[in-house]
Specification:
- By secondary structure, the protein is α/β, with parallel strands linked by helices.
- The chain has one domain (3-218, 264-300): NADP-dependent oxidoreductase domain (TIM Barrel, Alpha-Beta Barrel), CATH 3.20.20.100.
- The chain has helices at residues 30-42, 60-73, 101-115, 134-146, 160-172, 195-201, 244-259, 264-273, 288-295, 305-315, and strands spanning 3-5, 12-14, 16-19, 47-49, 81-86, 120-125, 150-156, 177-183, 205-209, 280-283.
- Helix 2 packs across helix 3, helix 4 crosses helix 5 (160-172) and helix 7 packs antiparallel against helix 10.
Length: 316
């Protein structure tokens, strides 16, 4: 594994991090989840990305991770960088989501119990809350660090102006915003508009989620929809997203990947990692074989201008 420095901080993160959004829930095979976590860590993936509501059911990915901690990861706690988040829908009633102090503190306390942890390495505000005063959310992040429940804090999917306010508010209180977590992949290049530069200017790292567009940027759907795929299992990726245009683009990108002697998944990850404004990409996986494939991406993250032009032309 290769490691990159996370903005202006003491933290190095692996170029590939493992996300537990899918395939680690109570509906999934614990055996398979455990094998993937072991394989990741054995191959230098030190960063595991979670959130309160990953599952399904809500909270169960953290429980799975807590089991793995208890069973085997506990002696390696100091070699691991573990995140969780709060802000999306988690429990019933008015305190079960968004950015209030009540939600964030209660949620983190629940997460720590589920994961068998005393603290997380980074705690994120999972989404910008347009109604709660931003000062309330951010002061709660500061207090969480002061309480020792998280070593660092981060923000996810914040619009530019709210992110700017957050970086400054936290800095003034001597709490560094370690990471901005945003969606970034060949199909979704929004962070290039300003978020990547803004993150760097504020000394934070950028960590990309869904770098494979939930599996679209792989060979998974080239010959139809496999029964065990995210689309077929009825997750967040919908069949409607696999339009004819998208499929045509996937096939054309796959040809470029073949010319680079990479799988499409490897090339898609390498494409995100080619930019040194990106600290790490958080991959999802449903099998050890997918992880094996994805880890190979770091071997070649260099693209010629002609390759980049061809990729841009496919997307035009
Ligand atoms: N901050 C946020 O709001 C936010 C939002 C979304 C995600 N995230 C984080 O980002 C992580 C990754 O998101 P994601 O799961 O959408 O990432 P992704 O890497 O874009 O997609 C992962 C899916 O792609 C397929 N796949 C992976 N490697 C493959 C390979 N080599 N060949 C063929 N197919 C492959 C698998 O689908 P199948 O299951 O079909 O095999 C896998 O479940 C999450 O776990 C979470 O930690 C954060």
């Amino acid at each position: 594994m290769k490691y990159r420095r996370c903005g202006k901080s003491g933290i190095l993160l692996p170029e590939l991090s493992l996300g537990l959004w899918h395939n680690f829930g109570s509906v999934d095979s614990f055996e398979n989840s455990m094998k993937m976590a072991y394989y990741a860590f054995d191959n230098g993936i030190t960063h595991f990305d979670l959130a309160n509501n990953y599952g399904p059911s809500f909270g169960s990915a953290e429980e799975t991770f807590g089991e793995i901690m208890k069973k085997s990861f506990m002696p390696y706690r100091d070699e691991l960088f573990i995140s969780t988040k709060a802000g999306h829908e988690m429990w019933a009633g008015p305190y079960g989501e968004w950015g209030s102090r009540k939600h964030l503190i209660s949620s983190l306390d629940q997460s720590l119990k589920r994961m068998n942890l005393e603290y997380v390495d980074i705690f994120y505000s999972h989404r910008y809350d347009p109604v709660t005063p931003l000062e309330e959310t951010l002061q709660t992040l500061v207090d969480i660090v002061r309480q020792g429940k998280a070593l660092y804090v981060g923000i996810s999917k914040y619009p530019k102006a709210a992110a700017e306010f957050a970086y400054k508010y936290l800095k003034e209180r001597e709490v560094h915003c370690l990471l901005y977590q945003g969606r970034y992949n060949i199909f979704n290049r929004e962070p290039e508009e300003d978020i990547l530069q803004q993150t760097k200017a504020n000394g934070s790292g950028f960590i990309a989620f869904s770098p494979l567009a939930q599996g679209l940027l792989t060979n998974r759907y080239i010959n139809g929809i496999p029964q065990d795929s995210r689309i077929a299992r009825g997750g967040f990726l919908k069949e409607e997203q696999l339009t004819e245009v998208v499929l045509k683009r996937i096939k054309a990108l796959n040809e470029i990947a073949t010319q680079r002697e990479q799988t499409l998944a490897e090339m898609a990850l390498a494409w995100v990692l080619k930019d040194d404004l990106v600290t790490s990409v958080i991959i999802g996986a449903s099998s050890v074989n997918q992880l094996k494939d994805n880890i190979r991406a770091i071997e070649n993250c260099v693209f010629s201008p002609e390759e980049l032009e061809k990729i841009n032309a496919i997307l035009a």
